[in-house]
Prior knowledge:
This protein has 365 residues and is α/β, with parallel strands linked by helices. The protein contains eleven helices and 18 strands.
Amino acid sequence: MARPLTATVDLEAILQNYRYAKKQQPTCKALAVVKSNAYGHGAVEVSRYLDKEADAFAVAAIEEAITLREAGIVSPILLLEGVFEGDEWGLCEKHGFWAALENTQQLNELVASQAKIDKVFLKLDSGMHRLGVDKETAPTFVRALKETGQVGEVVLMTHFACADDVSDLTTIQQLAYFEQARQSIGDIDASVANSAAIMKWSVPEGGWIRPGIMLYGISPFAEVSGRALGLRPAMTLSTKIISTRQLKKGDKVGYGLGYMAAEDHVLATIAVGYGDGYPRHAQNGTPLQINGQPACLAGRVSMDMLTVRMQDYSAVPAMGEDVVLWGGDVPVEEVADHAGTIGYELVTRMTSRPYYRYLRGEASQ
């Protein structure tokens, strides 16, 4: 490896975060959500590490699920968006996938395929209005699924729009709507809780929770870090200084000359840019660390490089010194805030260019 950009992923931290999620809702089983390449952490490696303990995994689409099966993952895998084409039902049966279902076309294609599916998660639109059936038609769908003789179990599922805002009453309203639908159906397992709901809301006992972003130690809430919530951040993105130069007061730096030195200081250039997934819209002052000392972005983010300075103008960064972009004492949530986005986006937008290094068990301590 020549270019020094490295994403270090602590797999033991992810496992501990999974266990933490289950402790919050101890009557529930948990779907470890590994969609979008495990939120940028590496779906295959993460799933292999959790495979013996996870109750099941969840991905967005069948391509992600097949990749996991081909990598040797044996736990059940749920397709959160269901199938997109009718012939995918046959693949679900072949590979033992579970699938979400939310419309008549998916139901008709399931029946036509004659595929046997162990679990189907019927999506209820409880107020987010993206996907799902309403509470009036939910009993009809459940009955139809059971009558096919092709489905082992039906689980009623919904998704919260505002679970990350504990002052918003929408989640309470959605829960009430969900319970009305559930009561009209009768005995049926539930799946309602994403990461925010797992940590901050009372949800139906039993059934399935869906820890996603919290698995990776990242907070689903604004203005609080995962670490502050008791989670273990799983990724450290780091690189090294590849060049330094002395700036004089008034010197300007980078594309658009968007940074001007307020006084004489040393500027460092580091090997990372938006081509690696670092946010282009990060502002001057975005935090990072150089050899464990506070530093910050100084200038516009380029495709392959950043320019940075120490917070202490008198400190002198040197060639080859280590730089932490996020992780450890540089919360990814704080970096995201300086870029006008959320931690979810920073880790999921990671490209294949960084070298991925995985820590397992005692090596992560």
